[in-house]
Amino acid sequence: MSAHPEEVSSDDDLVSDVTFSVNRYHFGGFALKIKENTESYVGSHVWKAGIVLCEYFEKEKISFAGKKVIELGSGTGIVGILAVLLGGDVTFTDKSFILKRTKQNISANLPPSCKKRTKVCVLSWGDDQKNFPSNYDVILGADIVYCRSAYPFLLQTLKHLSNEMTTIYISSEMRPNLVSSIFHEKQLPPQFNYETVHRKESENIVVYKLTKK
Ligand SMILES: C[S@@+](CC[C@H](N)C(=O)[O-])C[C@H]1O[C@@H](n2cnc3c(N)ncnc32)[C@H](O)[C@@H]1O
């Protein structure tokens, strides 16, 4: 199996560019300008769990310096962009039709010196993970646990990309009807050690830190 996933070209886009806004976010001294669709497609705007994960990195003064990082379900790219600014060598991933927006936001927020530490690749859970190596230092995912039928594929992907030295941060909005807790409390624990490292009660969002057993 190849461990060299193909990078996405700037033409690989199906997300409409017609209705968008550019919004500003501030974390740890960095000002981010994120282009978001005002239509409701799931990966085309910033989700609250993404903001909370960025706030957690800011609060804990997390550094990704020298770390090989992969983000699952990058969407607009806000979390991965902050991880690059915090020193990481970051592979942004999502379904192919989302990734033009991710690339636009990377270009708008990162100077060329930082852009060298980014890759943007298609990774649809359960289908593409074998194209990636298993030696990431850090795996990031914000609001990626919301579709119950995708849980087995997400689990396969996390297992493939990680080893016992990998730190995984997942930020999840605990929507009762979407049973995120089944993934976090029943499906992850047999294979991963996990702890709750941050909770934003007002938004019902939890940040988990995981390592492979
Ligand atoms: C709720 S959005 C969160 C986006 C971003 N992480 C944030 O916090 O703003 C979920 C993201 O996961 C991606 N996603 C959903 N199912 C996926 C799958 N099976 N494989 C890869 N990505 C997936 C979506 O395309 C979307 O970008």
From TrEMBL:
Give the source's domain of life in one word. Answer: Eukaryota
Protein name, entry field: Uncharacterized protein
Q: Which PANTHER family match?
A: EEF1A LYSINE METHYLTRANSFERASE 3, HEPATOCELLULAR CARCINOMA-ASSOCIATED ANTIGEN
Record bears the keyword Ribosomal protein:
no
Gene Ontology cellular-component annotations:
cytosol; protein-containing complex
Q: Name a single GO biological process.
A: methylation
Q: Which InterPro entries does UniProt cross-reference here?
A: Methyltransf_16, SAM-dependent_MTases_sf
Species name for this entry? Callorhinchus milii (Ghost shark)
- Keyword terms: Methyltransferase, S-adenosyl-L-methionine, Transferase
One of the entry's Gene Ontology molecular-function terms is: methyltransferase activity
